[in-house]
Amino acid sequence: MRILALIKYSLDVAEIKVDPSTKELRMSGVPEKIGNIDKNVVEAAVRLKEETGASLQGLTLGPLAARESFKDVLAMGLDEVYLIDDPFTGAADARIAVRILEAAIRKLGPFDLILCGFASDDGYTYQVAPRLAERLDLPLVSYARRISLGDGGLQADRDLEDSLQTVSVSLPALVSIAEEAFPPRRTTLMDALKAKKKPVNIWQAEADLGLSLAELVKLNAFTSSAQIGMIVHRKQHMLKAGTPVEMADQLIDILLQENVVIGAA
Amino acid sequence: MSPNTILVYSEKPALLRELLGEARRQAIAVGWKVAALVLGKNVSALADLGADVLYQIDVDDRNPELVTAALTTAIAQAQPVVLLVGATKLGMEVTPRVSERLGAGYAAWVVGFQFDPVTQSTAAQCMLYTGTGIATYGFKPGLAILTIAPGVFEAGPAADKAADIVVLEVAGTASKMTILEYKPKPASGARLEEARLVVDVGQGVKQREDLQMIQTLADMLDGQLACSRPIASDRDWFPEWLGLSGAKIKPELCLTVGVSGAIQHIVGIRDSHLIAAVNTDEGAAIFSQADYGVVADLYEFIPALMERIKARSIHPVWMA
Predict the structure, then answer these.
(1) ipTM at complex level
(2) Burial class for B173, CB neighbours closer than 10 Å (0-12, 13-18, 19+)
(3) Which of A52, A182, B89, B280 is surrounded by the most beta carbons within 10 Å?
(4) Residue ranges per domain, chain B?
């Protein structure tokens, strides 16, 4: 059995600051890391690998700088990682990113099971799994929380807003992992030492995957794109001194002044 | 030339009303048609929501593959310039699928859109990086597919004219995925969108039993209890959460308790008139998004707050 985990090297969106005067997003220096959602993907994949003895590869479309961050997911149990050096440096829309991932999957495959996150931590537009299902003509179990394999198929619980759906598909299949569904394991020093010996392979979209960047660019949905930061002005008044009772009284005084509550001043 | 059409779909009736409200407002101004896709058997209840045409397709709307096929069929019939879909988990799966099948442009988390009749193209404003910013995208001419979260647009009034109902069939209802069991989650009784005071619980609350204390506080202030995503999705303490992918509130006061302040959660509470936050960590992101920050252990502060509310006979102004 062969399993592939798609993992994204994501911007830490909490670190994106907004310039208060120009409303510009300050993108330079924003740290990137393997996303939390993606670590849940790796955990789900490693558990299935342990159950079945499957091989488990990881695939990322991202900058070469991502190389260093694979130590953790290799220590968790990936056998090796393929990193496609992103020719569009994160700027390509999802349709193009999926074409690149598709080409890599066709080259690396066939796989019995492909796992990815329901969304990425930074873009958070939920597009990769459904687009890839369409491109690869695979069954997709989206928002999966529990996964079990058997009889050439897969059963999983799809976690939706108002229901849980237990579904089955035959393999090969694509599964997207729901939020916080598989909390990543802690790794040991021994895991980290083993991870050092595992390969991180680098691919170029044109040279290794036979893609034409000029053709890919034509798939872009947009003719223009502009960004501004959201600024909400809050008072940011801090209460940090005093006993809990004193602070409670201070907060009540504030809520009286703000006309949210009434009572004894 | 026949008028342009905006096609609307959501499996959630309340969200469908909001999308139709905005579609109607834009369509009236320029003489366009509004069409809605309704799946299943019972469509007559939706006939006065403001669509000119209801396309009815009898497929199971719990299966994304069938919903994708139905949307593709309705698009072929209606030839819309804009497709609005509710940004639920189902909506967020079927729209990229349709985009991929038709090669149509797609943007997620849309908060506004405009169609330019001269260039026959759409521009849309979307939440970027889970709500840190807003991106404005100009689409290539042709169909633009947009997903819209609950609470972005306002529902319109009931229409004075019932929609024409057109029954369509999808070619083939085979599905790669089989639904074995369907378990509805308990419905949330809370109407968070209308609450005047919300106590918003985060991961700083350690055990489910502790919610009792926070519920008591909320009751004292005529407030509703709500939570951040991990509390609902991972711990399963609540059926819904506040945030980009959850509910959005606009109360007089949102009091966060043990909430760290990830931006995708802030999106759900940032329309609150006032935000007060309680967190032990002075560096928590929530404090930069709050009017008032209390750096304290919630297990000491909340009991003290309840004691002082009682001692000082504090009530919300609307309970006077």
Answers:
(1) 0.94
(2) middle
(3) A182
(4) 5-168, 192-319
